[in-house]
Amino acid sequence: MNFASIRIITDDIDRLVEFYEQVTGVTAERPAPVFAEFVMPTCTLAIGHSKTAQLFGADAVVAGSNRTVIMEFRVDDVEAEYARLKPAVEDWVQEPTTMPWGNRSMLFRDPDGNLVNLFQPVTEDAMKRFAGR
């Protein structure tokens, strides 16, 4: 089994696509006006308009209601990403901090309130854990 993607459902797809293009540096593929994908080497982030949620069942998905998932992106330099994104991000949860498990991490919310973590392994143990991933 291969993990294929994570999908965010939103009422404002253009706003979220623009935000994640800025965060990831990847241009979204837009096979339909109500759907976008950020295809990256290790994962795909998909964004669908709330109109697409009807395809999954009446109340299966509610846009902007997630408070339990953290989308995590490994980066080369957390400090550089923080400086680059500071003007673009409105809701900072945590400025760059070294976590007990050895990652340098910063957290913020996207325009729909989803939590995003950009992290960099900085301790020897953390770097070993992520070697080859």
From TrEMBL:
Residues 2-121 form the VOC domain. One of its GO terms (molecular function) is lyase activity. It holds the Pfam family Glyoxalase. PROSITE patterns: VOC. Keywords: Lyase, Metal-binding. It comes from the Bacteria. The keyword Metal-binding applies. PANTHER family: METHYLMALONYL-COA EPIMERASE (PTHR43048), RING-CLEAVING DIOXYGENASE-RELATED (PTHR43048:SF4). This is Enzyme related to lactoylglutathione lyase. It comes from Paenibacillus silagei.
